[in-house]
Amino acid sequence: MRGCRTMIWNGVNSAARKRQYRTGLLMTTSLATLFAANLAFAQQTPVIELNPIIINTGDDATGPGNGYLASTTTTGTKVSTPLRELPRSVSVITREQLDDRPSQRIEDALAYTAGVTASPWGVDERYNQFMIRGFDVGPYAVFRDGLSQRTVDFSGFKAEPYGLERIEVMKGASSVLYGQNGADGLVNLTTKRPTKDPLYSAYAGYGSHNTYEVGLDAGGPLDKEGVWTYRLTGLFRDGHEGVDFSKNDRVFIAPAITWSPSADTSLTVFANYQWDKLPPNAFLPVASPLHPGLPKFPRSFTTSDPDFDRFNANHGSIGYSFEHRFNEAWTIRQNLRYSSQDTDYRHLYYTQMRDEQTMGRAAFTVDETASIFSIDNSVQYDYQSDHIKNTLIAGLDYNRYTVDGHNGYATGPDLNFENPVYGIDVPMPGLIVDRKTTTQQVGIYAQTQTKIDDHWLLNLGGRQSWFKEKTDDRLYSTRSDTSDNAFTGNIGLGYLFDNGITPYASYSTSFVDNMGNNNEGGLLVPSKTRQYEVGVKYDPDFLPAHITAALFDITKTNVLTMVGDGAYRQIPEVRHRGFEFESTLNLFHNVSLTGSYTYLDAEITSSTLPEVGDRTPMVPKHQASLWAKYTFDSGVLEGLNIGSGVRYVGNSVGSGKSGTQVPVADYTLVDAAISYEKNGWKGALKVSNLFDKGYYSTCATDYDNGPMCIYGEGRTVKGTLSVKF
Questions:
Q1: The pLDDT value given to residue 13
Q2: Cα–Cα distance, 202 to 126 (Å, whole number)
Q3: CA pair distance 163, 274, nearest whole angstrom
Q4: DSSP characters over 418-481
Q5: Is the dihedral of CA 113, 119, 123, 126 positive or negative?
Q6: CB proximity list for 377: less than 8 A, separation 6 or greater
Q7: Distance between CA atoms of 45 and 200, rounded to whole angstroms?
Q8: Which helix H or strand E contains 95, and what residues bound it?
Q9: Which helix (H) or strand (E) holds 573?
C-alpha cells in the first residue's frame, strides 16, 4: 500500500517497565559475560603474551575501514575529514561489521546504529525502510557515493550490501551539502572501488526458506604500473521469505574501473545492474472489540495471491567520480550518475473484515519507469598558516527525478481466512493515476572547515536551492508546473583536547519542497527543519575506540502523514528531543564491540486536529543495542570467530482514522554468528532473531477503524562457505 511509506501515528503507549528492565539486564549481563570470560582465561593461564594494541590513526574515507573502526568520513563535508573533527553526529558501519552480522538488507546493517530504527514497516522489500531520530525517511534519505538514490514513487533503487565498502549515517538536518533533505539526516552508501592490490574472493550460501546464494568479488591492477585498476562484484540469489508464496530473488553485478595516471588525478567509472523479485509488506487484522473472535495469524499467512501479486524491479546505473589536484591548495571534483528502474508491482492487500472470517481486499498495481540524473561539481581550497588550517569547498549540483507510468486500484475479491483459496483470477484494476512527472533541483553551496591552533574547530556552510516540478496528467489531460526556492545553513563549533575528547555544538536547517496536492485538493506546503545539537566525542590514545554522545532538539513543520490510499495531510509541527550514545571499540583479548542507546521524546506541538501533545507516531522512546565478537588468534581454535548481539526497541503507537491509537509493544531480538577461517577458506553461520521472537513492527487501522499490524521478521539462518585467493 502506498501509505506504508508515510503514515503517521499518534498517542503514547504505556511503558512495559519490567520488559525494559529485563532487556537492560540482558544487555548488561552480555557485556559482563565478556569481561568474565576474559578474566577466567587470565586466571587459567599463568603467562599471558598480550598482542600489541594498534591505534587506528587513519583510513581511507571511502574504504572499508579498519576492522570495526573508521576514523574518517566524507559524508559530513564531502572531503576526507577525521570523525572527531566534525561537529555533528556521524556513524560508520564498516565492511567488517557488514560481514560479521546478518546483513542481507541495508536495514539490517543499520539495526545497531544509535538514532536509527530499522525496518519500522516490517520486511518491506519495495524500498529502504528506516527512521532517523524518529522521522520515517528511509525511502528519501538514501545517497550513494554522495549522490541521491532516493525512492521515486514506487521505484526504490534498492542497494545490495555485498556491493558496498561502508555505510555512513549523518544525523539531523543536512541540506547544505545535499539539497532537499528532511530533519532526520541521511544514509550514504559507499560503493566498492577498484584496488591497487589483487583481490579475489567468492562464496556460496544456503539459508532459511530454501534460499541459495553465490557471490564474486574481484579486483586489482590491469597493468604493471597500476595506472588502470578494476573491481567486479556480483551476486545471484534464488529463494523465498517467511510469508507464503513470497520470492527472494536477485541478480546483481557491478563493474568499476579506475584510471589514475598520477597521484593527483583519478577517474573511476561505476556501473551496476540489479534485477529483483521481492515481496512487499502486508497488514493483518488483530482481535479487538470490533472483531473479538479473530485469531492471531501466523507470520507466514498472506492475503496476497500468487497468481496476481508480484514486485519485480529491474534497475541499473552508470556514472563516474573524477578528481584532480592542481597543487597543495586547489582540487576539483565532479561526480555524475544516471539511474533507471522499471517497476512491475501488483498487490492484493487486506482492507477490512467483512464478517468474522471474511477479509476484504483491494487490488493495487504499478507499472512505471523512473530515473535519476545527478551531477555534483565542486572545488576545494586548502589554506594553512601558523595558526589556521582551513578547507573551503564550494559547488554547484543538479538533480532530476522522472517517473512515467500508471497506477491501478479497485476492490479485490474477499478471502475466507479459515478456508483460503489461492490461485484465483483477479481482474486488473482500473487506472487511478496515469502521468509523467519530472522534478528538478539546482543548488549552489559552500562550506568551510577551520582549525585554529590545532584545537578550535569551526564549520560554517550555506546553500541556495531552486526547485521545479512538472506533471503531465494523461488521465485528466492536464499539466501542472510548480516551483520554489530556499536557503539553508549550518554552523558548528568544537574543541580538540589533547586527551582525545572533543566537545561540540551545532545548528543546522533543512528544507523539503512537498510538491503535489493534499487530501482536500489544496497544494502541499514546504517542510522546514531546524536542529540544535551538542555532544562530545572521545578517541582515546590507549585503545582503538570511537565513543560519542549527543543531545539534540529538532523542530519540523508541515510533516506529511497518510490518511488514505494515496492521500496526505500535513501535521503543522512536531518536535523531537533526545539523547544518543554510541561506542565502537576493540577491547582486550581480540574482542570487538559496538553499543548504542537512544532516548527520544517526540511530540506533536501544533495541529488543526485534537492531537497536540500526542507522541509522534511510530517513534519508540527507548532503543538500545550491543554486539560483540571474539576472535581466537592462537592455539587449536585459531581462526574461530564468535559473535552475538541483542537489540531492544521500545513500545510505540499506531493510529488511523480520527486519531485512533493502536499500541505497539516493545521487543527484544538476539542475533548470533560463528565462523572459522583457515588457509583462505571461511565457513560462517549467521542467525538473526535467534529465538524466533514474534512481534509487530507497527500497527494501523483498517477501513472500518479496526486495528491491523505488520509482523517483524522471524528467525533467519544463513550458512556460507567463502574463499580468498
A1: 36
A2: 28
A3: 11
A4: TS---S---PPPPEEEEEEEEEEEEEEEEEEEEEETTTEEEEEEEEEEEEEEEEEETTTTEEEE
A5: negative
A6: 332, 333, 334, 395, 396, 397
A7: 39
A8: helix 95-100
A9: strand 567-587
**Terminal CA-CA length for the chain:** 46
Output DSSP code: residue 690: T
The one-letter amino acid code at 676 reads Y
Altogether, the residues listed in the chain come to a count of: 725
Q: Each residue of 195-209: b (16+ CB within 10 Å) or e?
A: beeebebebebebbb
HSE, CB side, 13 Å, CA atoms: give it for residue 195: 16
Q: Which band of pLDDT confidence, cut at 50, 70 and 90, is reported for residue 513?
A: confident
Q: Are 96 and 68 in contact (CB under 8 A)?
A: yes
Four-residue CA torsion sign, 199, 205, 207, 212 = positive
Mean pLDDT taken over the chain: 88
| Residue pair 149/374 in contact by the 8 Å Cβ criterion | no
Query: Which DSSP category does 182 fall into?
Result: -
Q: What is the dihedral of CA 377, 383, 389, 393, to 10 degrees?
A: -10
Write the DSSP assignment of 341-352 as a string of letters: EEEEEEEEEEEE
- pLDDT of the residue at 607: 87
Cα–Cα distance, 456 to 450 (Å, whole number): 8
- What is the predicted pLDDT for the residue at 659? 66
Burial annotation 311-324 (CB, 10 A radius, 16+ → b, else e): bebbbbbebbbbbe
Element (H, E) at 20: helix 17-44
For residues 51-55, average pLDDT: 39
Cα 404 to Cα 112, 341, 379, 518, 523: the distances in Å are: 37, 11, 35, 21, 21
pLDDT in tens, 411-436: 999 999 999 999 999 999 999 999 99
Q: Closest Cα to residue 287, out of 344, 235, 356?
A: 356
**Residues 206, 215: Cα–Cα separation, whole Å:** 12
Q: Given a cut of 80, is residue 574 above it in pLDDT?
A: yes
Residues 720/684, Cβ–Cβ less than 8 Å:
yes
Taking alpha carbons only, the member of 578, 628, 605 closest to residue 131 is 578
Alpha helices per DSSP H over 216-367: none
How far does Cα 212 stand from its chain's mean position? 25
pTM of the model: 0.90
Q: Which of 512, 632, 488 lies closest to 560 in space, CA to CA?
A: 512
Residue 690 grid cell: 535467534
- Closest alpha carbon to 345 in 215, 530, 156: 156
Residues 248-302 have pLDDT tens digits of 999 999 999 999 999 999 999 999 999 999 988 889 999 998 899 999 999 999 9
Place of cell 546553500: 463
State percent of the chain over pLDDT 70: 89
Q: What is the pLDDT of residue 343?
A: 97
The CA-based angle 475-477-478, given to 5 degrees, is 115
If phi > 0 it is left, if psi is from -120 to 50 it is alpha, else beta; for residue 617 that is beta
Give helix then strand counts, H and E, for the chain. 4, 37
CB 268 within 8 A of CB 193: yes
CB 569 within 8 A of CB 519: yes
What cell was used for 531? Answer: 536542529
Q: What single-letter DSSP state applies at residue 113?
A: S
Task: Render the burial of 413-428: b for 16+ CB within 10 Å, e for the rest.
Answer: bebebeeeeeeeebee
Of 41-55, 232-246, 434-448, 710-724, which gets the smallest average pLDDT? Answer: 41-55
